[in-house]
Amino acid sequence: MKVYHGEIEIQGDMLRPTHEDITERVKQCVADSGVRNGICVVYSHHTTCSVITQENSHDTNLWGTEYLQQDLIDIMERLVPTCRTEGQYMHPGPRHLEFAANVAGEDGKFSLNTDAHLRSVFFGRSETITINDGDLSLGEFGYVYFIDWDQVRARKRVCEVQILGE
Q1: What are the tens digits of pLDDT across the range 106-118?
Q2: What is the mean pLDDT of the chain?
Q3: What is the DSSP string of the chain?
């Protein structure tokens, strides 16, 4: 059995969730792995991010967000409103703010991303996709998206791709 590990870098935006179509980069990892039949796990270790499979909407708004992704953002805004100020959610509490300042050297406002943590829980941080005859089994309309729900700052994210098979 072969095991392959790859990484995909994504640049997150500020002030709005980032939806990045990573399908072609995942397919390239499958090709690089040489695996013809097996599984591909696409995973984010960032607790404010998600990995999903979804249809490509093709149309985009002026921000460049696909309509279907914007619909998802709008639904999540109603379910889990964007954190705008301290006290809106219980998290972050004083101990977490102290931890962020002392360990990570972060300004407290960067901890106002509770909505991103909660949203990522709804969708999960990984997808497992089968590989058949060297192709990802995404169906006719399936695409792989990396979502960065964190809107407090723009930063680089890493999506891991682990492939196992023969």
Answers
A1: 888 899 999 999 9
A2: 96
A3: -EEEEEEEEEE--SSS-EEEE-HHHHHHHHHHHT-SSEEEEEEE--TTEEEEEEE----B-TTS-BHHHHHHHHHHHHHS----STTSSS-S-HHHHHHHHHHS---GGGG--HHHHHHHHHH-SEEEEEEETTEE---SSEEEEEEE---S---EEEEEEEEEE-
Q: What are phi and psi of 75, to 5 degrees?
A: -65, -45
Quick one: pLDDT at residue 98?
93
Which amino acid, 74? Answer: D
| Residue that has been written with the tokens 């991303």 in this structure | 113
Supply the Cα-derived Rg of the chain in whole angstroms: 17
Model confidence pLDDT, tens digit, residues 16-53: 999 999 999 999 999 999 999 999 999 999 999 999 99
Domains and CATH numbers, the chain: 2-165 (2.60.120.460)
Q: What integer pLDDT is reported at residue 108 of this predicted model?
A: 86
| Residue tagged 């990573």 (tokens) | 22
